[in-house]
Amino acid sequence: MNIYYNELIQKIDQHVAYLTFELDNPLLLSESLIEFIVNEIAKLKLHVLKEGFASIEDEIDFFKKLKPNIIAKLIYYNAIYKIETKRPHGCDKLKKKYLNKELSKLKRFFESNLEFYKYYRTNSTYLDIKYFVRGKHDIKLCLDTYYFESDHSFSTSHDYKVAKIIANDLIQFYLEDQKKNLSSKRNNPKSASVINWTASKTALIELIYALHSKAVIDYGNSNIKVITKAFATLFDIDLGDFYHTYLELRNRKNNRTKFLDSLRDSLIKKMDDLDEQ
């Protein structure tokens, strides 16, 4: 099971990395990943039902550690999709209020499940048989209604709750990062850009590295970090781990300069159109 699981989680992580690189829009990214992960979970379920587990310990390990890590990704991207579709378009104060409201939801879940948080965070095991073995649920442990509606052949009473804990940590980080971005813009109004970069971040990084390789900025004396920071300031955009993005560009199987090629084609077309007038 662990070999199959490790291959599956690697496949999912690689696909997440690929789509994150290709899609800069959080809505499109989340939508694509939700569909992909749902399909992979369906395959995992068929594998589990067919192969079963060699021991109770293996079953506990799967429902306590392995399955929740995959389900957490689904919960996370589904949450991001909902957050972004409902995000207000008003002033920063309104946006911050919305983000705080979403953070409050995470806090309420934590407070409602405090005892299980303690159990899970301290790596306790004394209730594992009741929590993470199919058909061993205990009604006295305050089960969620969700469990009674789930497929008990592929669920235990608390595997989904573990996934929620993992996902909520990621969601909290996302929301706090969004708040930080709002505060940064408010505290540095002079850095606010009057022009916006509306292509993908990947495209901008491709352009930056092209300019750097041609040594057309400061006669080639400026390093890539300085140039990237200048562009990030100009467009008021966070380019994140730009070097990792560059490595992704290098590893493309086809058309490593996709954006630069499109620039050239677009300019030539415009010139040709003007010649025909």
Automatic annotation (TrEMBL):
The opening ranks of the lineage are: Bacteria, Pseudomonadati, Bacteroidota, Sphingobacteriia, Sphingobacteriales
Instruction: Please identify the protein, giving its name as recorded.
Output: RteC protein
Which species is the source of this protein?
A: Pedobacter metabolipauper
The organism's place on the tree of life at top rank: Bacteria
What InterPro entries does this protein map onto?
A: Tet_reg_excision_RteC
State the Pfam families in the record: RteC
